[in-house]
Design a protein that fits this description.
Layout: E1 3-7, H1 11-23, E2 27-31, H2 34-44, E3 48-52, H3 60-68, E4 78-82, H4 86-92, E5 101-104, H5 109-120, E6 142-144, E7 151-153, E8 168-170, E9 177-179
Parallel strand pairs: 1-2, 1-3, 3-4, 4-5
Antiparallel strand pairs: 6-7, 8-9
Helix pairs in contact: 2-3
Length: 194
C-alpha cells in the first residue's frame, strides 16, 4: 500500500489517524511539529501527507510551503486536517500553495479512507505537451447569518461571527421554534429527526 506521513501536534489525533491508516494496510510515519515533519518527509518520501493546519511554531501552511519547495514535494497530495472551519482554510490558502483536500477534526474514518483512496487512485496521463495544472483550493460555499448577515460556511449550525443559530426548525409535536441542529425539543422533550 502507500507510505503516508501524518503531521499533528496532538498525540491523540496522530494515534487515531495512524491507527485507521495502519488498519487499511498503509505504512504510516508520524511527526508532531514542522521540523520533524520536514525531516521525515525527506527521509521517507511519502505518497500522501496528512497535515494539521494549526500547529504551534511552524503552521501547516508554512510546512506545506517548505515541502512544496523541495523537488520531491512539488506534486505530493496533501490533506489538511483542522478543527478550524474550512472556509478559513480555503480563504487563507493561496493559489501558489495548492493542497488536495480538507478533513475536519475529529476525523471521520470513512471520509479519511475515501480521501486516501481518491488521492491514490491512478490518474489519467496528461499529454506531455500540456503542463499539469496545480490543484487549486475549492471555492467554499457560504451563507449569510440571518441575525448579523456575516458570511458562514454552508451548513453551519451557528454563526461564526455572532454565535446565533443559522436557522430554525419547529418541533412536530408542540410547534416550538428551535435552533437548527437541536436533537430534542426544549419545551416538550420530543426527539427530533436528524
Amino acid at each position: 500500500m502507500a507510505r503516508i506521513l501524518v503531521v499533528d501536534d496532538n498525540k491523540l489525533i496522530r494515534f487515531v489517524v495512524s491507527g485507521d491508516l495502519n488498519a487499511l494496510g498503509h505504512e504510516v510515519a508520524t511527526a508532531a511539529d514542522g521540523p520533524s515533519a520536514l525531516l521525515s518527509f525527506k527521509e521517507r518520501k511519502p505518497d500522501v501527507v496528512i497535515l494539521d493546519y494549526n500547529m504551534p511554531g511552524a503552521s501547516g501552511t508554512e510546512v506545506l510551503r517548505q515541502m512544496r519547495s523541495l523537488p520531491e514535494g512539488a506534486d505530493i497530495p496533501v490533506i489538511f486536517l483542522s478543527g478550524t472551519p474550512s472556509l478559513e482554510i480555503m480563504s487563507n490558502a493561496s493559489e501558489d500553495l495548492p493542497f488536495s483536500c480538507f478533513l475536519e477534526k475529529p476525523v471521520n474514518s470513512a471520509k479519511l479512507k475515501e480521501a486516501i483512496e481518491r488521492l491514490l487512485a491512478p490518474q489519467p496521463p496528461t499529454p506531455a505537451a500540456l503542463p499539469a495544472a496545480p490543484v487549486k483550493p475549492p471555492q467554499a460555499q457560504t451563507a449569510p447569518c440571518p441575525a448579523c448577515r456575516g458570511e458562514n460556511p454552508t451548513g453551519a449550525r451557528f454563526c461564526l461571527n455572532c454565535g446565533k443559530p443559522m436557522g430554525t426548525l419547529k418541533c412536530p409535536k408542540c410547534q416550538t421554534e428551535l435552533p437548527a441542529g437541536a436533537k430534542f425539543c426544549f419545551s416538550c422533550g420530543e426527539k427530533l429527526a436528524g
